[in-house]
Amino acid sequence: MRLVAAVLMLAASAMAAGIDGKWKAKFDTQIGEQNYTYEFKSDGEKLTGSAANAMGSHDIQEGTIKGDDVSFVENIDFNGTAIRIEYKGKIAGDEIKFTRKVGDFATEDLVAKREK
After folding, report:
1. Among 52, 21, 59, 50, which residue's Cα sits nearest to residue 35?
2. How far apart are CA 95 and CA 101, in angstroms?
3. Which range marks the domain in which residue 84 is found?
4. Could you tell me the pTM of the whole model?
5. What is the pLDDT of residues 6-50, one digit of tens each?
6. Three-state SS string across 54-72, please?
């Protein structure tokens, strides 16, 4: 019984470590190439952290992680206009394949890679 409990604890720990840490992405958008650094911290199914690019750093909101599925929101101010960016992705090892919906303007695909 103790062995089963230990294995379950290790599995839960491995899942949590699956996203925790720093990730980088470079991708093309309607306003040009974007370079992002994401910092993630998981606590069960809750995901917190930040998304940073040349325009600043923003706390992620509404973050969830369920298995290898991840989603969160980045709210930014672009030249005085509030824009909600919704991310949905899937973790595969050291990569997260995201689709992000930028307000009502665009939908973009990107890959974030774990920083080592």
Report:
1. 52
2. 19
3. 2-114
4. 0.83
5. 444 444 444 445 899 999 999 999 889 999 999 999 999 999 999
6. CCEEEECEEEEEECCEEEE
CB 70 within 8 A of CB 47: yes
Where residue 104 sits, what CATH number does that domain have?
2.40.128.20
Give the alpha-carbon dihedral of 67, 71, 22, 10, to 10 degrees. -20
DSSP category for residue 18: T
Number of domains in the chain: 1
The bridge status of strand 61-66 relative to strand 69-78 is antiparallel
Rounded to whole angstroms, the Cα distance separating 114 from 101 reads: 22
